């Protein structure tokens, strides 16, 4: 019976040794995997730093561009106000010309008979003068 205990102890020792060997192999494989994960994460971290720097630069440029657009837009406000005033001036000028034209037409209508008589008298006077 003692031999059986020794054999059982020997089997236990061999099984324990095999278990330890496989555990060591598993831990080494896990260590390699962890090293790969660590390398990947470090690469991602560096890329994120680059992305962060580029994003910051892009944001700064966007803010500068927005400020420039606002500045130039405010400068154009005066131009648009001037164009509006110019349009009103042209409209007023056209109305004035229309009124003057209406007045001339009315005056011409009133004096048309007198002008016709003056032309007739002028023609008659020229005919008499030519005959002399």
TrEMBL record:
UniProt key word Membrane: yes
UniProt keyword Transmembrane helix, yes or no: yes
Pfam families for this protein: DUF948
Keywords for the protein's UniProt record, in alphabetical order: Membrane, Transmembrane, Transmembrane helix
Top-level taxon: Bacteria
Transmembrane segments: 6-24
Record's protein name: Uncharacterized protein YoxC
């Amino acid at each position: 019976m003692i031999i059986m205990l020794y054999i059982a102890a020997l089997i236990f020792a061999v099984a324990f040794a095999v278990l330890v060997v496989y555990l060591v192999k598993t831990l080494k494989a896990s260590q390699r995997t962890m090293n790969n994960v660590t390398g990947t994460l470090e690469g991602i971290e560096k890329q994120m730093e680059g992305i962060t720097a580029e994003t910051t630069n892009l944001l700064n440029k966007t803010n500068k561009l927005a400020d420039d657009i606002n500045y130039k837009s405010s400068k154009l406000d005066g131009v648009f106000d001037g164009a509006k005033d110019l349009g009103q001036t042209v409209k007023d000028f056209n109305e004035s010309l229309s009124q003057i034209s209406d007045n001339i037409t009315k005056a011409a209508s009133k004096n048309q008979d007198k002008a016709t008589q003056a032309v007739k008298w002028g023609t008659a006077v020229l005919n008499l003068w030519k005959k002399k």
